[in-house]
Amino acid sequence: MPLQIIQHTPLWVFAVFAALLWLGVNAMSTRTASLPRVLGPGLALAGLSVYGAITGFGASALALTAWALAALVVFGWAVRRPLPRGTRYDSWQRVFTLPGSWQPLALMMGIFGTKYAVGVALALQPALAMQWGFSVPVAALYGVFTGLFVSKSLRLWQLSLRGDRFGGALTL
Question: Do the Cβ atoms of 35 and 97 come closer than 8 Å?
Fold first, then answer.
């Protein structure tokens, strides 16, 4: 059965996996990046999380409520967390210096793995989408990913605004 699942997986899914793996591995080393390049992947992955909740569970008010509550709670917690030590924004060059970390890779693989596993589960048993014991926890997990991705993007954007206001480099 696992071989059949892989054989029936569209090729673009493997391309998305490879791109996320590449991005995650690159994030393990200290790097510099512009604001759009820093915000883009996080917001795109937050969008993938929202997309997963909506396509997986449709208009289920309970699932969408679970997604929204989880996203808000995690966002509220994570937005107060400091950025990793060594995160820096240089307003003259308009680039961030981001310390290497395994966390982006883990989050990217987490959202990809969740979306893939849910897709397979729903392809094999479409009725799962209507069972709250499946839809609510999965939608809440999508919400956790959304809250984490959006909070990090917001914290980086705020750092860039402070750097622009002070006209120099800001380091955390």
Answer: no
pLDDT, tens digit (0-9, with 9 covering 90-100), for 60-100: 889 889 999 999 999 999 999 999 999 999 988 999 999 99
If DSSP codes are grouped into helix, strand and coil, which group holds residue 93?
coil
Question: How far is residue 143's CA from residue 89's CA, in Å, rounded to a whole number?
Answer: 28
Nearest 5 degrees, angle CA 146-CA 169-CA 83? 30
The type of residue at 125 is Q
pLDDT in tens, 124-142: 999 998 898 999 999 999 9
d(CA 105, CA 113) in angstroms, rounded, equals: 12
List, in sequence order, every residue forming a beta bridge with 123; answer none if it has no partner.
none
pLDDT (mean) for 141-152: 92
In angstroms, the CA 124 to CA 103 distance is 31
* Three-class SS state of 156: helix
d(C-alpha 14, C-alpha 127), whole Å: 26
Domain limits, the chain: 2-86+100-155
